[in-house]
Amino acid sequence: MKPFSFVHAADLHLGYAQYGLEARRQDFDNAFKEVVDKTIELKPDFMIIAGDLFHQARPSNVTLENTIRSFKRLKDANIPVLTVDGSHDSAPNTVTGTILYPLDSAGLIHHLPRHSGACWRKPDCCYVYGIPNFHNKHKTEEALPKFMAENSPAPDGKVCNIFVFHAAVDLPSVKPPYIEAEISPEQLPSGFDYYAAGHVHERYLDKFKTGVLAYSGCTETADYREAKYQKGFFHVKVNEKGEVNPEFNEITSSREFVVFEQDFTGMASGKITELATQLVKDADSEGAIIIPVLKGTLPAEANRAEIDIGKIRSAGEKALLVHPIVLLKETAVSDEIVRSIFESEFKDLKTKAFEYFLQIFSERYSREEADKIARSALSLIEPLTRKQDEKIKQTIEELAK
Question: Is the pTM of this model over 0.85?
Fold first, then answer.
């Protein structure tokens, strides 16, 4: 077997104008440009993009033009690009398909699931097989067996075998808390040396079945929770024995995210605004995206709406954006407190009512009689509010005597 190398990238999310910012759309393009620059420098035999090349199945003309330009550079450098679709750029329906189809027809990529056998071969080097993304666990269980029956995987023991897919494998070491596992280990066939995966944005590499399972991770921060992840791709070298050696290549063009969490439990809304504003000022950095995560439990008299989010946002003068995430919980008022409030209000109401009745009846009756009538009238308030008909009748009868 001839030694060779390939680049494994995924989750580029081209065209994602995160937070509604054109600058963020450009950031994702810049990250891909750096991936392409470094790939051309490395001179691999081919490149794999394991899904979510685009953030939508219908990217804008600007994003599409920039992507075509990058693919043209790879083609001119004799580096074929093999793709599968991801959860974001998969075909919206079977009639219109995905933008990956015309890119495939133009010869800029080789979209594996679209071709006979869902594969690509490099003689004496490798066999590459790829499946489409089915969006969720239920559809994967339903559609993947049919797809594999029509496009049977055929790993070749004489070459390096590569399986390309876009899904979170249901393994405790792989699945992040906010992504549903879409595929089980049992659904992935054995006989492959390298499982080139996408969808999980954190870089991952470990032994799996007969080979290695690898997630190259994302190339830009698509969610603030991913800010701490290293961004980049794998350059995988394969020797004459078919042994794979993935090397991670970090990219440096990713936008800086400053994410900090602060617990404000028990603080008044005004104090939270004041402290959060100061924290943003302290973290302010040129061109950065600042994400203050406000956590904790508010006191009973406070609510989230009282926090001045506008003031917190405007505290970053050098940052591209300040985007507060408010995870504060409002304190639920206990039944005892609610009862005491209403009971005290009820007592106040009874006192005022008695004074009013006494004054009215004193004009026509003696003080002693007015007091008796006022107390009888007062005793009607509670059964009236609670619709206690029998008690109302009894009180009126006693008053009539």
Answer: no
